[in-house]
Amino acid sequence: MKRMRRLLVIGCLWLPLIALARPEAVPSVALEPAQQQWLDTHRSLRVGLVLQAPYAQFDRRLQQLYGANVELVNALAQALRLDLTWRNFADQASLEHALQAGEIDFAPGLTQTPASLRLWLFSDPYMRVPQLVVGPRTGAMAVELEKLEPDQRVAVRMPSPLADYLRSNYGTLNLQGVPNEREALQLVVGGQASYAVLDEAQLSRLSRESEFGELAVVGDIGLPQLLRVGSRRDWPLLADVLERGLQAMPAKALEQLHQRWLQPKYPRLSESAGFWQNLAMLFGMLLLCALATLIWQRRQQRQLERSLLATRENLAERQVREEALRLSQFAIDQSTVGILWVNWDSHVRYANHAAERMLGYGEGALLERPLSDFEPNLNMDRWLELWRGARAGEGGVGQFETHCQRADLSVLPVELSLSFLRFRDAEYLVVYIADVTERHRALAALRESEARLKGIAGNVPGLVFRLERDPAEGDLEFPYISEGSEALVGYAPAEIQHPQMGLRNLVHPEDRSDYHRVQDLALAGNQDWSWQGRILTRQGEQRWADIKASTRRLADGRVVWDGIVWDITQGKRAELALARSQEQLRELSAHLESVREEEKARIAREVHDELGQMLTVLKLEVSMCELAFAELDPGLNERLSSMKRLIAQLFQLVRDVATALRPPILDAGIASAIEWQARRFEARTQIPCLVQVPDNLPALSDAKATGLFRILQEALTNVMRHAQAHSVEIELVREAGQLRMTVSDDGTGFCRDQTRPTSFGLVGVRERVLMLGGSMTLDSEPGEGTSLSVAIPLEQETDRDSSAGGGRPHHCP
């Protein structure tokens, strides 16, 4: 069976050669005199072919070329009477390299692209190769790509212009990329893809295999491949001659050429008209060649198998390399970094799109230009020095910054990176261009910001610092200390930045423990910290400082505290002086209040005792006068009765004055005094007053009892004047070594933020409480009533009572 397949392949190779032996008659070509004269001097031409079935193939056994493009060129040679020399190439790149080297004159079967126009002069298309949609024969006979469902896969070779066309025009198409057309058809046969898209030429080559006999053409995508004849650009008359030769070829001959080589054919016995004839010819040839080739075949079988295997591996490896090369070329063309390939003479051989955009040139305008057009300072000596340094692998010339001149004569700051490259027996220096305009702007802005920050920090009346902690090692350091340190503490920034110095050694020894506690707590929790205390200068001078630092975390994980040390010596001294003044004023106020209370008590006693005694004597004298002389004169009796009434009013007035100065009820204890004051408030205002006083209250000093009583009087006076209350509650409670008195009402209340500057009632209450060493709480809301709570300590009272033997306290002046 293997021998039969080999013989079948040999017979199939003979068929096109037999057909090639009978070329169609091509009429003579009418040329212009100049064209005819040029052709007479250039009869011998070199033809370049890219070996790709079915356009051009080479039979190694017969040492002959065959294919559609071979037949076409033979027909042109016959019509123009040319003497041809054939050269075949593995790929398009090799063909173009040979053209640039002057080794070929023209080539058939080329596709016109913007890049190839720089190398070839193209004829009009002589053959249209459509891109076809292939699917199973059992499926639909006509397929439109835009109507395919998303779950229907379409296999196509990637990367390729065909794949780019499908991706850009059919956005919803589910494309599946494959390395070659054979795998695309295999996916359709295996059911892994619904359809495959490939050109008619590749389909005609693959459709002859029995593996793809069940596939059929189901559509045309409308993107044909137009085959042209390309010739040397420096021989325009050759292009005109070839164009005349193509125009002279009959359309029928081109159609037959298309049907013979590009029309898909499927190996079905029932549908092939020439199958039995070809089979008979094959058996006849087999009988003639079997004996001659049998021995040679046996000898060459193993060698051929090894060669085929090696060739297949080489082809697969070449396809992989070509695919990688195409991907690399695409990546270079689409890169955002400008890339130039430069010869040793500093002329550009390749430039990607990014380099053209950066330098302001159009597509292809950078080619063959010297680098001095873009960098005027780059003379030839400097260039050769860079070339030799890059070629020798010296690191000093690998990367540097410079300024390039764009096409509009503007200057562009760039960073150049050089890399030496050897490619296809040629040496290049690859220049990578990066636009650093934004980087320069950012650096300039950063420098300006740093200068502004240093200027601000240097003029701040204090010390600005930055404290950092490395997350890996955990060490703390001061990377920045402002110049204001010398004015503040007399130390230079470098001295404070020393690991053995820091800010801690500037703190006063008596305040150092508190500073360590605040700072260590903030450093442990990565929190902001603030501290006020004393620091010492280099000269030993004591100053007050306010240290504040705010924390932030950098992108690399470091924790940074930005802080400032303010000199608050003047303010602190003023604050301490003010505090001492306030304390002295409070002591003076307490002394004056004590003196006033004592004076009130003395006046009350004198009024009560002296005036009371005098009024009593006066009342007795009036009574004696009434007994002795009332009967003598009726008018005198009336006068004496009036005097007795006035004396009674004076008695009441004396009692009221004495009570106002110091109520005698205070001598009975604070509880009785509170109950007495509440009853007087009820009698005067008709407002119910509920009093809650415990039974076992300790004895208070006269000063504290009088103070609590005056506070109660002021609170009840405010209720009477402003509260409009319906009831008042007074509570006296002993709790946690304190005696707390609370006065609450259900009146209108007030907003505590709205204070009246002319009202000193609450100010007096607060001062009395501070003088007693207690605290005051005031709660009030509009419409919710008011609650005043006063607490005074009892411990000192007990100690003072025991030391004084229970007597009245003594007030120092």
TrEMBL record:
Gene3D superfamilies registered for this protein in UniProt: 1.20.5.1930, Histidine kinase-like ATPase, C-terminal domain, PAS domain, Periplasmic binding protein-like II
Predominant subcellular localization, coarse grouping: cytoplasm
InterPro entries the record matches: HATPase_C_sf, HATPase_dom, His_kinase_dom, PAS, PAS-assoc_C, PAS-like_dom_sf, PAS_4, PAS_fold_3
E.C. designation(s): 2.7.13.3
Keyword Transferase on entry: yes
Subcellular location: Cytoplasm
Every PAS domain range: 449-526
Keywords for this protein: 4Fe-4S, Cytoplasm, Iron, Iron-sulfur, Kinase, Membrane, Metal-binding, Signal, Transferase, Transmembrane, Transmembrane helix, Two-component regulatory system
Name of a matching Pfam family: PAS_3
Statement: the UniProt record of this protein carries the keyword Transcription: no
Protein name: Oxygen sensor histidine kinase NreB
Organism: Pseudomonas kermanshahensis
